[in-house]
Structure formats: structure tokens, C-alpha cells
Design goal:
There is one protein chain. This protein is α/β, with parallel strands linked by helices and about 400 residues long. It folds into 2 domains: about 10-50 and about 85-185 and about 370-390, Rossmann fold, CATH 3.40.50; about 200-350, Rossmann fold (3-Layer(aba) Sandwich). Helices cover about 45% and strands about 15% of the residues. The protein contains 15 helices and 13 strands. It has helices at about 10-20, 35-40, 60-70, 75-80, 105-120, 140-150, 160-165, 205-210, 215-230, 250-260, 275-285, 295-300, 315-325, 340-350, 355-390, and strands at about 30, 50, 95, 125-130, 150-155, 200, 235-240, 245, 250, 265-270, 285-290, 305-310, 330. The chain has a 6-stranded parallel beta sheet, with helices on both faces. Strands 3-4-5 form a 3-stranded parallel beta sheet, sandwiched between helices. A two-stranded parallel sheet has the order 1-2. β3 (about 95), α5 (about 105-120) and β4 form a beta-alpha-beta unit. α11 crosses α12 (about 295-300). The relative contact order is 0.13.
Amino acid sequence: MYLHGGSGNHGCEAIVNSTCHMIEDIPKLLVTNSEKEDRFYSLEPLCDILQERKIAEHFFAHVWYYAWRAVFHDPESFMRYRFRDVLGKNRAPLYLSIGGDMYCYELSRKEAVTANSTFVRAGAKTILWGCSLEPELLEDQTVVEDMKRYTLITPRESITAEALHRAGVVENVKLFPDPAFTLEPEKTELPAGFQSGKTIGINVSPMIVRHEQTAGITLANYRKLIDHILQTTDDSVALIPHVMWNYNDDRLTLQELYRGFEADERVLLFPDLSCGKLKYIISQCRAFIGARTHATIAAYSSCVPTLVVGYSVKARGIARDLFGTEENYVLPVQTLEDPEELIRAYDWMMSKEQEIRGQLQAMMPAYCARAWAAGDEIRKIWRECHSQIEL
């Protein structure tokens, strides 16, 4: 498993955690950008963990490989250094790219394309696992050709699957829900003031703030929503972070949102916890308003009515697959202009609360079983790899 940024992003942790449980019978190695994070949270008992090589931390190696790439026009040289411990005589037969949205951002897209070509050129099979791609990205023929190199692509929502089909990438594409829909919650102690079934969970991230078109509008909407909940209900409010990376830390945004509510016992700010414990907390909420995809997946899969404050294909696609439409279920942060838009979206959701919960309860068993079945596809390719090795 490669292109894993580390478990400080608990969505990344949830993908690896759930994938490992899907394929318990297959030996697994996680090549990670942050071994320390992965050993700290939930992954160490589930798979072997190997720190990938970081070329930027080794001056002479960086100069050598940079010069080599420039002279010989060999972009894969950096990947051969980065993944040297799992290439050559240590090459595995099968590689899973588990960074689900790597292709959504320019820098990480280049990494994903180059890593895929490196492993395929070395003679391995590759899988693009639980991915989302913006449809316009597939107008780039370089990306289309890269998609065709994968043995299997498992888009996690239908917008990506349909875009791949329109681009002519069909035979290696199989639609499955995100693997994190199968993540098991881990029971943890809830603080005083948290009312199970009467707490509104809230997640907001620096990422969506960066996508707002009107400065300050996102937190203004969230503050007004919290005031609205406190004034019109006796529910509690739980501020729940889901990514704790230094350069993209939900806690910083939530701490800013928390200012002014510190004295109110009904407003709770949660600390950093593992993906399973965060899912348990979210599962105890009455409703959830979230920005991070895997925080909302934790809510959906726990049958908690959920409103996504999103900006990307993954938010739209997952909501469309669950409800037939993203309208009213996803509030695009780019469109926020009025500081009370989030209140109106929340009020609509709560007016349909029982209907939404009932719909999720009816569909989640089959939907999660479908996510779990993706593990069979890995096993199938794994067996093919070993049959070829034996021959």
C-alpha cells in the first residue's frame, strides 16, 4: 500500500484500517510518509509498516537524483529512490495506491502518475483504490493513459466512474463505496455535556476555508449555526476534528470557531483521537455537519443525518449515490455568500431528520456489504499474481 500520507489524517487512517480488515488473509506492507503517526494510532497491529525514503532530507541524494532526472529526462528516478526498499529484488507483485484523492491536486497527481508508471515498469500490477477524480481531469490524455495502466480502479462514487467510462477507461473500472464505510467504531468515553442522540456534530477544516469565495464567510456561517442550535434546541454541539497535520489541522479552525463558546457547557471541543474512536463519537450524534469526507462517511455509515459543507467531486458523488441527488445534502463552500445559508440547510435537514435516518438505515447494510466486497477484487488479482510467479 503506497501514497499514504500518514494517520494524522484520520481519513487516510480509516482507509488503511478498513482495507486491512477486508484482506486479513493477505500479507500487507504499508509504505508511509509518516511511520510515527501510523504506529501511534490504529495501524500497527494490522500490517507491517515501512517509512518511505524522503529525498529532500538527504542533500547529496537530492542533488544526484535531480541532476540525473534533468540530464536523462527520467522522472521515475525520484520514485525509485523513494520506494527503493520495495523495488528490485524486494518488489511486491501488487501495489495499492490508497491516496483516494491524490489525482484531485496537481502536485500529488504528478506523484501518483509517476509512481504508477514506476511500479508497472518494474513488472508489478497496480490498483487505484477508493478514488475520486474531477471529470475535467480526464480531458488530459496523459491522465487517461495513466488510468489504463492500472490493473483495477475502484472509484468510490458514480460521478468518477461515469467520467472514466466517458474517457474510454472501462474494462479495469469497478464501482465500490469507499472502504471506510466498513470501519468499525471503537467505543470511547464521552465527556460530560455530550448527550447521546441529542448532540449535533460539527467538523470544519482549513481546506474548505481556503476554497471560500467571500473571506470569513465559512466560519461566520458555522458560528451562526451554533447560536441557532443553542437558542432553538436543548441539544449539545460537538466540535470534532478529523485531520491533525501541521499544515492542514482541523483543530486550529475549530479552536477559532470555539472562541466565544468556551463558557457554554453544551459546546464541546474534542481532542485528537484515532479514526475508530472518532467514528464512535460521530455515531452517537443526532446529526452531523462536516467538511472532511471521511468524517461524513463515519456519519453516513452510522445512519446519522448528515450535511456536507464541501467543494469536490467526492462530496457530490457520495451524496448522489446515497440520496439520488446532492441538492440539500451538499452545501458548496464556493457558493457561500449569506452568513445564514448554513442555518437554512441545517433546518431543511432537520425537518427531514427521520426520513433521512430511515433511508440510511434501510440502505447501509447492503451499501457497506458492497464496500466490503471490494476486498474480493484484491484477492482475485493477488491470486493471479501468484499464479504467474509459480509459472
